[in-house]
Amino acid sequence: MSQQVPAVERALEILELLGDRPDERLGLSDIARALSLNKASSYATLTLLADRGYLIRHADKTYTLGPAILPLANSFLRDQDILQHARAEMTALSRDLNVDCIASAVIDNDMVILAKTASQESFGVSVRLGSRFALVPPLGTVFLAWAGPEQVRRWLAGLPANLSARARNRYLDALAVVRDRGYSVAIAAGDNPTPSTQPLDPDEYLLSELGRDHRLPVGHIAAPVFDPEGAVRLALTVIGFHDQLAAHHVPTVGERLVAATTAVAYATWGTSRPGPQPQGSTQATIPAAR
Length: 290
What we know:
The protein is an alpha+beta fold and about 290 residues long. Helices cover about 40% and strands about 20% of the residues.
């Protein structure tokens, strides 16, 4: 475990708080209360961050993120050629399907949002760039469906310890379904179109069967971008559907999404290939190209 550095932690917590609430201006008292910090030390940190341009101190003594954040973000994104090509496909997906689209990658066992586009009639799904989601079931099937046994084992370790072996195997079945289709389909939890982080029943959350006449409250559909070695380097996810989808329309959306991820791979590396077949699996791999 890394050694704690209170001053650094305080600065990072402040930046993360303001990043999570981009539409709000927070004052010293708001920030200290939200983070359970001492007001005097918070003021010193806020002053330093504002002096360095990482925060803007407004006339009403509230704070928002400042322009010095941008060079840091751009330094990370500059060499991500895959994102440059992904954004073009994401814009087309948002336009053609009338949905929002996000690009995510796995970094340090978290799924991190790296880019997003919105449709003209966007619901304004609240997912900010840089958001991190722990890679635990039921999240991340689009990354795990083509992963090796050890990666899958670590993923399943995020389930409750008292979960039965039969229930755990249903998550393995869900991965096989994603691998067969070439994309994942998740049902929205209630009125919330964003993915739940709770260990829901995989049969309820990770849609495994499509009845021809059903209409489904689809939360999102995600497809992988494979690198030349067959690893999932990026996932494109369409989210924010304006109505329930007819079951027979889900494959149409999924195949359009897979066509986009295949185009991203080809534009990035000049080739595209399906993901590897995990050892011990009896499921056939669905090619990335359509």
